[in-house]
Amino acid sequence: MEPLNTKLYEKYKNLKKRKFFEEEEWNRKRDTDLRSYQSAMEDLIEEMKNANERLRAELYSFQEQYANCEKSLLEESQKSKELSDEVGRLQNLLLKKNDTSDRSLFSSPCSIAGVMSTEIPKSLPRQKTRDLCEETSPIQNKEAATLTYDSHKVETKVPDCCRRNMGSSSDASEDCCNCVFQTLVKLLVGMDFSVNSQTESLCLLVVHKMSGYSFSLTWMPRDGGEGELMYHVSSLGTLERVALDWMKEDMIFSTAMCRVFFERITLVTGRC
Q1: Is there a contact between 249 and 264 (Cβ–Cβ < 8 Å)?
Q2: Do the beta carbons of residue 168 and residue 246 sit within 8 Å?
């Protein structure tokens, strides 16, 4: 009986020893896993701290940019208000100037000189000359406001107050520019018109004083029909940002499109 007990006791000791080793191995593995989890947690916490610091720095940067943008917006608003006040003041001055110009124009209107009156023979009696002038005055008034083109030269038939004296040696500033026709066109279109007498072809210079926008219209004859106009921009002025693409390039259009041309330009100049 005793050997059996000894054998059982030895078996018990081996089982207990093996269980102890298994528990120790399990505890060692658990400690390793816990240390691994702890290290991963510490790394994650450190990464979150760094991300938090980075986001906080970005937030401060955005707040600073927002403050700068708000300050710039206030400055731009102040400048815009000052520019609006200045534009209003200049518009009032321009209206006063136009009113003064119109009053002086209608108080001393320019006289229309007939083109055909120079062709009347001096040998005719005074009464016949007066009758002939009265009969031809409608034709003179009509021809005085028209432009005729010859293949060799351009002859401008306009009233004396609109025509430059090419044979005179006086300065161009002494020419009469406040013609009733020029004033009428200015009131209708809102831009100043003048004739460039330095070119061989008939060339009109158009200026919008409020924006500084200026361009030229050159008469181009066409066989068997109406002539054409060549548009050439000289300066866009303050309309450079709002100007349409076709306003920045040279183009040629028929005289029948003049009304549409000036209507579209007026839509753009009206924004300034």
Answers
A1: no
A2: no
Alpha helices in 171-257 (DSSP H): 180-189
> In this structure, what token pair is assigned to residue 24?
């120790």
Give me the amino acid identity at 98: N
Task: Please provide the average confidence, as pLDDT, over all residues in the chain.
Answer: 74
Amino acid (one-letter) located at 27: N
Q: What are the sequence ranges of the domains in the chain?
A: 110-144, 148-269
CA terminus-to-terminus distance, the chain: 122
Beta-carbon contacts of 163 under 8 Å, excluding residues fewer than 6 positions away, are 156
CA dist., res. 20 & res. 171, Å (int): 123
**Ramachandran class of 190: left when φ > 0, alpha when ψ lies in -120 to 50, beta otherwise:** left
> Measured over all CA atoms, what is the biggest interatomic distance in the chain, rounded to whole angstroms?
179
Query: Which pLDDT tens digit goes with each residue over 2-57?
Result: 777 788 888 888 888 888 888 888 889 999 999 999 999 999 999 999 999 999 99
Residue linked to tokens 């124009």:
105
Query: Where are any strands of DSSP class E within the chain?
Result: 146-149, 154-157, 192-195, 203-208, 213-220, 228-235, 251-254
Name which of 260, 207, 259 is nearest 237 in CA terms.
207
Integer angstrom CA distances of residue 197 from 90, 111, 141:
31, 21, 22
Return the CATH class of domain 148-269. Answer: alpha beta
Distance (Å, whole) CA 208 – CA 197? 20
> What pLDDT does residue 121 have?
42
Pick from 174, 209, 249: nearest CA to 93: 209
